Queue: 2 jobs
Job 1
Amino acid sequence: MSADLLFLKRRIINAVALLLSAAAALLGLFFLAWILWTTLSKGIAAFNVALFTQMTPPPGEAGGLANALFGSVMMCLLAVLIGTPIGIAAGTFVAEYANRHWVGATIRFVNDILLSAPSIVLGLFVYTLVVRPMGGFSGFAGVIALAFIVLPVVVRTTDDMLKLVPAQMREAALSLGIPQWKVTLQILYRAAAPGIVTGVLLALARISGETAPLLFTALNNQYWSADLSEPIASAPVVIFQYAMSPFEDWHALAWAGAFLITVFVLVLSLFARLVLLRKRVPND
Amino acid sequence: MQETLIAAAERRASRDARHDRRFRWMLAGAGVFVLLALGGAALSMLWGGREAFATFGLDFVTSATWDPIGQQFGAWVPIYGTLVTAAIAMLIAIPVSFGIALFLTEVAPTWLRTPIGTAIELLAGIPSIIYGMWGLFVFVPMLAEHVYPWVDANLGQWPLIGSLFAGPPLGIGTLTAGLVLAIMVVPFISSVMRDVFLTVPTRLKESAYALGSTRWEVVWDVVLPYTRSAVIGGIFLGLGRALGETMAVTFVLGNAHELSTSLLMPGNSIAATIANEFAEADTDLYRSSLIALGFLLFVVTFIVLALAKLMLRQLAKREGR
């Protein structure tokens, strides 16, 4: 009898635990759906063509986000252009030259810390590094701050992806007398390319919504500006400013901007996964 | 003829060697750049905050007076806010993440695992400013209207912990920030936990099942002990994120520099203080104090993340990776 009771108790505990785990997953999905629904419904309600054609308005006037979107696109692309080559180079060094060496281990460790370090800290770093010596906020400083966020993501994915390339491929190429730099550039990179592209896309997705490091590097600009030595508007900073304001029409613009960024980030992350998936299937 | 061929081959070999050296140095330079980036970040903030540290000394950390007009800067309120919001977030996020990881590895039917896993990971990719806006415009009114009045009337009456939950239902405040942070870190912790749960050898689990264990017993007595260090690593990773999260917290925390026992009252955090006040900081001492705050945040997150890495590496070592 007591054995039966014990068995019953174990089964009840099991059922409760499994039920709770399903509830936890539901809870996660519920908040995902809630947040997405809010962004989509409020964003679509505020969506119109003027977003792309008009400048950010003063309160009470109609306007769009053209200068902010332009600033974001420009700064993000430049940051990727700067961060990616350095990241690929450092990732290659760790995977191909310093693997299983304390130097490689140290760079890996530091890079992982950099990867999860609060972005606001990187913003402060770039402030003391660029803004203060140059004597003012500038789009250039914003680009550097974003590039510091791109860098660790690319280092990590390059490192991971090069480690997946079979050693036979290197050995076969080297045995033909091909110098190592050529092996790396023309063979290893080709094999690892989909993974590295995925990393770059994920990095782009990450910086396109970054706000904190831009607050005191690129600052903000009410007008159209493509001059990197001047403060430049960016979508996240404008969203922050508008959402924290008491004005209804600014709130609507903020939601429209939030909608654009969210859609961009989600599409980009899904696309990045597809790139990796498509390549993997024939390889396996 | 033969000599020229040999000479050409030698020339080529030496050219290749030269290029290889150059290539190697270039890559090594990029690697060193990564090291310099982190070191530079730490040093530049220590340098930028030197004025604040020199002026206030230890008071900078222990004093709760943050007075830009009187030029008195003590960071206890933001430090306290950072720690409390992160603690609330972890209290909620750890069990929920564990539940999700358990669901994704042991409970859900196989066809459901990938889509739900991807959905949870997408939650991690949403920019934090979106969480902040959602928090401010949707979550805060909901809490203020439906949840906090009840919390104040019921939990607020409890002995000992009652004062934590008593207060006007403003909606914004420490507890709300903790809740939003919890939503934000759950995807991170649960995806680490899922990944490490998947590394448990099937033999171990099947042995336990063969002895008549229930699924829960397998997870609690086999999977969890096997992955313990990596699970703690994942939790620390989430904690590092919760401590440094800026935008979401800035929206819902209320930016108040007063110490309050109630979690329903507005508060502040290190990152929110920097985000709110940096552009307005008009004196060197003010700016230096904010950078010094950034330095403190950096040191704390560095320690937390370093511990996370070490813990995660323990499992990887056992795996022979």
Job 2
Amino acid sequence: MVRFVARRLLQGVAVVFLVATLAFILFRLAPGDPFTRMGDASSASQEFKAQARRNLGLDQPLHTQYFRYIANLARGDLGMSFSEQRPVLRAIADRVPATVVLAAAALLIDFLLGIFIGAAQGSRAGSKADDLLSVLTLTLYSVPVFWLGLMLMLVFAHNVGLLDLLPATGSKTTGVYEYLTPLGQLTDRIRHLILPAVALGLVGAAGTARYQRAAMLDVIRQDFIRTARAKGLRERSVLLGHALRNSLLPIITLFGLSFPILLSGTVLVETVFAWPGLGKFVVDAIFARDYNVVTGAVIISACMVVLGNLLADLLYRAVDPRVRGVV
Amino acid sequence: MSELLRVRHLTTSFMTGAGLARAVDDVSLTLLEGETLGMVGESGCGKTVTALSLLRLVDRPGHIAHESVIEYQGKDLMQMSPAQLRQIRGAEIAMIFQEPTASLNPVLTVGAQVDEAVRAHRSVSRADARARTVELFELVGIPDPAKRVNEYPHQLSGGMQQRAMIAMALSCNPRILIADEPTTALDVTIQAQILELLVELKQRLGMAMILITHDLGIVAGVADRVAVMYGGQIVEQANTDALFRQPAHPYTSALLRAVPRLDQPATRLATIPGAVPPATAWPPACRFHPRCPQTMDHCKSEMPGLTETGPAHLTRCWLAEEQHRRDA
């Protein structure tokens, strides 16, 4: 068990370094640097720009930049943010918690709702409720996350929404938050979290429900379900005790795969809801050609994906005894 | 001996893309206390669906016709509520299946799966259920039962898995054990062991057994009575001795000729020409007539009934009926 985790972590480090290299090359391949902006010939003089490039090491040959970058990375140094004038790691660290909270909430909605709907559908396949839910989930799955976010705002958000129930943007009420009691602060944050998390989680849940339905249908036809019924178990025990657990195996794989998709989803949702997380920060950094921030964010995302997959593998081992001792 | 199970007009059909498949068509049979009834026939003749229908375990799109009667000790299973039916399943009538590997849940320990069967019918503590499971594992000859209960199905061999299934089936001392091809998926050497075990336990526990198989050799050694199925119907039913000595239905005779024998000079093994027709397209009249070597005109126009052609000997064949009338 310990050896398994250690080996997977070591593999993860290799993956992260590969991702870092790719990110470095990709962003250097794009034309321009932090001091060239489209149609921007003014503001700073050519001399100033050249001096700034020298200071940041951007005048060095690419391979020199690369080795310095990797050497720094090995020490946990992601470099300086050009636009924020402070270490990238600190700038990212400020934003990661908000993204993690949003992603975790979305994951929770995604998988709890998706598994529930899918399992219910799978155990009543062919019924009217199943058909209705299929139409609903397929529609939801086809909807872009940012559009769903905007629609949710139009219905539920303060000022713009029909129902005027929840805050539309940000992660807390500016100017008021500091004066709230701890419980009030928590409530405020949760109220801000609901819309973006639902937007992101709902689309995921629709997809998860499709997989869960298929997995449930597959398991329900298996011989051991017949055995469970033959020994006189209640239908509820047959479904929950025997069918559901087996049907979760493919969903765990989906869980591991959903991390990168979820992270790209947060970029969109954070932009729509002005959520102060990593996604919005990265979008801004890309437009500012703030290399170190972008590569840094890519590396942090790679770490999250690696850890997510490790988590999925550990879950798999917990649910399926057959893989224990194999991987 | 009194009647334990009385099945009348059991008809199970499946709605398929190719039309309605009457997999089991008007099957009537009786099982006496303590006896072993063998059910034989080729693949696709309706043996397994008959067995599943007895406990109403046929999944959609399968459907058991309402006029079917499945009486266990005078109570009709067809009229029972799901809750009443649950009290019969596993407790009064238990079942073991063809593929032990597929019939056990891969993510639960074998012990947990037997515990569950015990606890489904008896209000006992987890510890007491586990003690009963260990006792059952010992009964079915699983070595080191206290350790084996904690293992997962994939850690057991096919033979051990089937023993665990038998332990599960016996957990509540059922009166009837339905064994659907219990040895088909196992190695030949293991087959004999499992069969011996079933026969021994049946006698020790005083159960009645319905043994479904395509292997006439097994039936000859184990069953008291035999029902031969073809095309979803019972075509011949008799005491084992009578059936093997004087088969009345041409299909039974053909099946017996197709059994390889060691006590006779090697000749080319007899086969039955053609194959079992699909359940969506049973031939009209006698279902065996397209493959029967003794077809008469009458066989193609009218379905024969299951009539007495000897003492306790029923046959569904115009020829057998005629011969019986001539002899009498």
